[in-house]
Task: structure prediction
Amino acid sequence: MILPIYLYGQPVLRKPTEEIENTPELKQFIADMYETLTQAEGCGLAAPQVGKPWRLFIVDGNELAEDYPECKDFKRTFINPELIEVSEDKCTYSEGCLSLPGISEKVVRPTTIVLRYLDEDFVEHEEEFTGFQARIIQHEYDHLEAHVFTDRISPIRKTFVRNKLTAIAKGKVGAKYKYKRN
Result:
């Protein structure tokens, strides 16, 4: 089932997330998230973006593999993730977000991270990610920390996007996928 993606201004995007337990409904929710991500043509989706204040996100980087070879077959579920380590090396890349349609801005992020998480079967992993994999993960992890990527841009750029964010929050901007706004 395709879920509506919550757009900027929805309170769930700014709420602290809660750790989740393995329940029978969780597998179906994760499957619905993947179906939603595919339909929206994104590379990552966090539970708050579909209305749940849970520490869960998914990624599917396969569509990016031509430009970012490390994303080939990079399809994962991250449950109750914990960012353990970030590199001092950083890189800048223009990011967008399904919850902020029509906005993209350059964001500086660490190039390498170490993340501890549970997979769909609640098996624990601690893994290092680099390059675009690390960027996708950090972007989605931010959603679990009640942040969106525009929180990480320079003050001058925030001034430039303020009107766009206000338009999204006021329901004046839509998206090409199923969405929910205020």
Observations:
- The chain has three helices and nine strands.
- The mean pLDDT is 96.
